[in-house]
Amino acid sequence: MEAVEIRKRMDRKRLAGSLTETKKKEEIKERKIREVREEEKKAAEGETYGPGIGAMDVQYVHYTCFDENFAVFMLEAMAKVVEGDDGAIAVVDAETGKKRTFSELCELVPRMSAGLAAAGVGLGDRVMYYSLNHTDYPLVYLSVLHRGATIVHISPIYEALHEDMMHALRLSGASWAIVHAELLDQAEAVFSLLPPNTLKKVWVIGGAVDRPAIEDLVAHGPIPPVTQLDGLNPASAVAQMPFSSGTTGPRKGVMISHSNEVSRMIMIKYLADVQEWLGTSESTDSTCLLVTSLSHIYSHIILFASLMFGGKVVLLPHVSSSAMLRAIQEHQVTMAIFTPHHLKMIVESPVGQEHDLSSLKLVTSAGASLSEYVVKAFKNKVGALVYNLYGMTELASFATGCIVTQDWKSLCIGKVMPFFEVKVVDLSSGQLLGAGEIGEICVRSPTTMIGYANNSAATSSMIDAEGWVHTGDYGYYDSQGLIYMTDRIKDLIKSKSSLQVQPSELEDLLLQHPHVAEAVVIGVCQDDFEEMPRAFVVLEPEAPVQPEVLKRFVNDRVPDFKQLTGGVWVVEEIPKNSTGKPMKRQLKAGQVTQLASCC
C-alpha cells in the first residue's frame, strides 16, 4: 500500500421516499439502486482507496451527504417492516417484558411530535433526555427529531452526577426534559439549583409518578402526516447532543446533525447489501441485546440499524452478568452489543454454564480497547464470533471494524468502513505516513459531527480545514490495510530525553503476569519536561500483594526510559466510565483506594 490516504467513498441515491409511495415508484427506486451498484463497481479507475471490510469488491465509491430528517427516514424504513408484518416487535424490555411494535412506533411518533408542538416545543429547542434503557426511547427520540428539536443525552451512569448534569444543561441550553422515574429524585436535586424557569416542563418516562408523563404528549385524532419539516436544514440542524467520554478533561457537547445520522444508516445499509455485516441482512430474523446505555452513540447506532432492518431489540435497564446471560437465553438473542467490560463480566461470571447461549452467533465490542485474553476466554466460554469496532462520538459512527480471528492482534481495529477516509500523519509535521509508520490517525466522513457546542476552539482543534478529524489516537496501518490503534496521544508519557512511552506496551506486559487482573499506566510529573510511568494494578483474587515484584517484572523487560520509575500502586479497583474506559484523571489525582505501593 502506498503512503496515501486509505480511502473508501460512496455516492448513493436516497433510498427512501414518502410513506405514500406507490408500488410502481418502489420498483423504479429499486431499479435505480441496482444501477448505482453496477456503476460503483466500474467507476473511477486509478483512484486510490483502502480495502473495505471482508470481501467488498467496490474499489471507488463517491459519497455525498443525505439531507433528510432522520425521523422521516426511520419512519419510512419501519413502515416497510409493517407492510410485511404489522405485529412485528421492535423493542422489548428484558426485565418487564414491555414491548413496542413497529406499527405502534409508526403511529405514535407523528402523534407525539404533534403533542410536543402543542406543548410549545419549537424548532431547534433542546430536550434533555435522562433515562435508563427503555422501550420508549425510539418513540421519544424520533418524535423530538420529527418536531425539529434536539435530544440532549445525559448518561445515567455519570460519576459526578450533579456536576455533570449541571454542566450539560448549561452547555446545551436545554429548556425541556424527559426523565426516567427511577432517576427523578437525582434530576430534581439538580433542577432545584437552576435559575427559575430554566426548564419549561419535565415529563416522566418509565413509571407512575405524580408528574406529567410522556404518554400525555400523544395527540389524539387523525394520525398527522409524515413529512419533512419546513425550516429544518438536515445538514445543520442538530439531531442529538451526546457528550464526550470525559476521560481526559471536561465533557464536551457533540452536535450531530440529521444528515450525519442518515449518512451512517446508508453506510450500514450498504454494508448489509454487500455482505452479512454484523450478522445482519434485510430480514426480521435477528434479535439484538443492548446493554450499554442508549445515551452512548454505540448503542444508539445499533438500535436504529436493527430497527431499519426489521430486527427485534432487547433492552436491559440494569446490567449484571446474570441479567445478560438470562436475557440471551430467554429471548434467543442472536447478536449482543457489548463493551470489553461486559465481555469480561461474562468471562468471570460463575453462572454462565447454567444458561443456554447457543442462539448467540455474534458479539460486537466497542467503547474501549479489547484484549486478547478477554476475547479468547469469551470465545472459549460462549463460542460466538466477536466483531471489534472502532469509532468516536464525534464521528457518530464506526470508522473501522474486523472479525476477531485466531490471527487477530489486540491493537488491531480493522479495516476502513465505506463512506470513510483514513490517513496517518506525523505528529510534528502533519505529513502523510506510510505503512508501518506510527502517527496520528485522522478520519474524514459525512457522518462527522457539526462541532462541539459553544466551543469553537475545541472544534477547530478536532476538525481541520479539509474536514479531517484528528482523533487523538496514535497508531499505524499495515500493508494489508489493517489499522492499529496503540494509544491516545494525550496518554503518551514524555520520559527521559523527550522519548515517548506508550502506556499500552507496559500495560500488556503487566497483564502477562499471572497475578494481575487489570492494569493502567499513566505518566506522573517529575518536572516540567519529564514524566515517570506509574502503574495501577488490580490483582487476581488471593494473589499476593507484592508491588515490588510487579515493578521488577516490567523493568527487567524494557529499556531504562520505559521502566516504572513512578512506581506500582496496587488498588482495589480502577475507576472507569460507563463504557469501561479508565478514568485517568482520577488516577492522576490519586482518587483510588490504595492497598499497597512501591516507588
From TrEMBL:
It comes from Scylla paramamosain (Mud crab). The keyword Membrane does not apply. It is found in: Peroxisome. Residues 505-581 form the AMP-binding enzyme C-terminal domain. Keywords: Ligase, Peroxisome. Residues 83-452 form the AMP-dependent synthetase/ligase domain. This is Uncharacterized protein. The keyword Cell cycle does not apply.
